[in-house]
């Protein structure tokens, strides 16, 4: 009995499928970069751990989490959020490598549209999101039955808050005079 392959693929058909597959992958790659936040120019290029996607995520989240504590003026508010991003980068620097990697992985997932949508139903990029949209996204994470989503919410809420309260520039905004030292008494 003569053995026959399950797929009788000629060289010509193989090449056709190869060209078609390559074109499909190239088109999918192009579409994926358009759907994600690729090409965002980092607002603060000197950060060590937050890339453009992480800055976008934490910038939008900080604007919501710290609403009421940040200045109302747009320019001052942006400067305060940028200061929070610098603080978050410092917090990441102080984390153990394994924890830092987990936060960076979370930010990577939240920066890409398809995984951001799967995690919380948000397709659009963070820079274009309104405060209500970001608040709704965070509420969805916080009230999720999945522990992983609730943990993501805690990270997204606590890191900007810690960075804000840890910054000397924020103390004036909240009316805090700073820590007392022995020689202050």
Structural notes for this entry:
The chain has 185 residues and is mainly α. It is built from eight helices and no strands. The chain has helices at residues 11-35, 52-65, 74-94, 97-111, 113-120, 131-142, 147-166, 168-174. Helix 3 (74-94) packs across helix 7 and helix 6 (131-142) crosses helix 7 (147-166). The protein is elongated.
Secondary structure topology:
Elements: H1 11-35, H2 52-65, H3 74-94, H4 97-111, H5 113-120, H6 131-142, H7 147-166, H8 168-174
Helix pairs in contact: 2-3, 2-4, 2-6, 2-7, 3-7, 6-7
Q: Averaging pLDDT over every residue, what do you get? A: 81
Number of helices: 8
Instruction: Tell me the series of helices and strands, N- to C-terminal.
Output: HHHHHHHH
How would the global form be characterised? elongated
Q: What is the terminal separation in angstroms?
A: 100 Å
Total number of β-strand segments?
0
Structural class: mainly alpha
Helicity, as a percent range: 55-70%
Sheet with most strands: none
Strand content of the residues, in percent? under 5%
Q: Measured on Cα atoms, how large is the radius of gyration?
A: 23 Å
The poorly predicted ranges are 36-42
What keywords describe this structure?
TAT_signal; Twin-arginine translocation signal domain-containing protein; single chain; 185 residues; mainly alpha
Offer a concise description of the structure.
The protein has helices at residues 11-35, 52-65, 74-94, 97-111, 113-120, 131-142, 147-166, 168-174. By secondary structure, the chain is mainly α. Helix 2 crosses helix 7, helix 3 crosses helix 7 (147-166) and helix 6 (131-142) packs across helix 7.
């Amino acid at each position: 009995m003569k053995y026959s392959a399950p797929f009788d693929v000629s060289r010509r058909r193989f090449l056709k499928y190869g060209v078609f597959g390559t074109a499909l992958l190239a088109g999918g790659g192009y579409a994926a970069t358009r759907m994600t936040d690729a090409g965002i120019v980092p607002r603060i290029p000197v950060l060590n751990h937050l890339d453009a996607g992480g800055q976008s995520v934490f910038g939008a989240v900080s604007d919501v989490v710290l609403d009421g504590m940040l200045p109302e003026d747009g320019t001052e508010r942006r400067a305060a959020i940028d200061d929070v991003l610098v603080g978050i980068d410092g917090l990441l620097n102080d984390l153990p490598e394994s924890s830092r990697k987990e936060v960076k992985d979370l930010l990577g997932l939240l920066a890409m549209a398809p995984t951001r949508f799967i995690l919380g139903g948000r397709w659009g990029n963070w820079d274009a999101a309104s405060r209500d949209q970001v608040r709704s996204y965070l509420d969805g994470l916080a009230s999720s039955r999945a522990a992983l989503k609730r943990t993501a919410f805690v990270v997204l809420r606590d890191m900007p808050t810690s960075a804000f309260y840890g910054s000397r520039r924020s103390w004036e905004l909240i009316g805090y005079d700073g820590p007392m030292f022995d020689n202050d008494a």
